[in-house]
Amino acid sequence: MLHIPRGLVIRDDSCSVFEGASTVNLIFSILITLGIFISYLPQYHRIYSKRTSEGLSTNFLLLGSCSSIFTLTNIILVSSKARHCCATGALNTFNCINSQLNLVQIGLQCTCAILILVFVLILTQNSLKQDKHEYQRIVQVGKLVALHGVVSIVQIVVGLYSDKSVLYSIASINGLLSTLLTVIKYVPQIYTTYTLKHPGTLSIGMMCIQTPGGFVFTATLFFTKGSHWSSWVSYLVAASLQGVLLAMCLYYEYFHNKGQDAELAERLAVERIIAENLQEQEIDGEEAAPLL
Predict the structure, then answer these.
(1) Quick one: pLDDT at residue 224?
(2) Contact call for residues 120 and 53 (beta carbons, < 8 A)
(3) Which residues, at least 6 apart from 65, have a Cβ–Cβ distance to it below 8 Å?
(4) Can you tell me the distance from the alpha carbon of 146 to that of 117, in angstroms, rounded to the nearest whole number?
(5) Would you tell me how many other CB atoms lie within 10 Å of the CB of residue 45?
């Protein structure tokens, strides 16, 4: 039986793909990680200030959240090889950190995307500006996203405890589904914005940061050592389609009739929702009065 001296690191040639990480790529990745969080702040603030989901497509919230979960599942599985190399000592600290930056970035992006749904559920629940029927649909979206999260955990466990072919099959399927949902999710949101002729609660500031940032993020994922195409293609598609949506919102908000039509359309929509909610409260009050 071959005796391996204690402390001796056995070199795994398959880990060499993660070596020679770029310092420049590391710096860009760290800046992008910070930028991902900052880019979502305008959207959170817009939901907080408006207290309504007016302008946000329910399907956009559902597909966007599920797309992020698919991508996170993909990167957790794809990056497992690098984590194994780090655990065996085949990679130094610098290369280990570089190999896991994509996981940190995508994990943060997934969390931030789902938080949009969470903030809508929490901040608009008792708001007079929130369409109650729309809110019930958003509640159903929240349940579906939670179920998807559970299914993804099962996929991750199965993938990590299976052979390489099964792991990469699960990762690739999640990557493809993420790309598909990324394409699909922008269709209802673009349609909603086109129909309403105003961005509503959808944040232009967020998209102004995320659209160019999406292309930069795609580049860092592409040039990362050991990257897999299924981990970055969805972000390339997302950045392209988000650019289309951003152009529409900018047109309606600032250029079409100097934004006056967009402001009027949004105000009328919110006033209609408030009137409907007040009417429902009056009816409920009248029904409850005989019981007192």
Answers:
(1) 67
(2) yes
(3) 113, 114, 116, 117, 141, 145, 148
(4) 11
(5) 14
Calpha distance 113→47 (Å, rounded): 13
How far apart are the C-alpha atoms of 99 and 234, rounded to whole Å? 19
Distance of CA 5 to the CA centre of its chain: 47
- Please report, as a single letter, which amino acid is at residue 185: K
Domain locations along the chain: 23-291
Angle at Cα 71 formed by Cα 12 and Cα 124, nearest 5°?
145
Long-range contacts of 21-27 (CB under 8 A, 24+ apart): 21/94, 21/95, 21/98, 21/99, 21/224, 21/225, 22/98, 22/223, 25/98, 25/220, 25/223, 25/224, 26/94, 26/97, 26/98, 26/101
What sign results for the dihedral spanned by CA atoms 203, 205, 206, 208?
positive
Scanning the structure block, which residue is given the tokens 């269709």?
187
CB distance 84 to 5 below 8 Å: no
What is the SS3 assignment for 187? helix
Query: pLDDT tens digits for 129-187?
Result: 999 999 999 999 999 999 999 999 999 999 999 888 999 899 999 988 988 887 788 88
- Matching residue, tokens 């969080």: 37
Dihedral angle sign, alpha carbons of residues 103, 105, 106, 111: positive
pLDDT of residue 179: 81
Q: How far apart are CA 35 and CA 246, in angstroms?
A: 18
Buried b (16+ CB within 10 A) or exposed e, 123-155: bbeebebbbeebbeebeebbeebeebbeebeeb
Burial of 43 (0-12, 13-18, 19+ CB in 10 A): buried
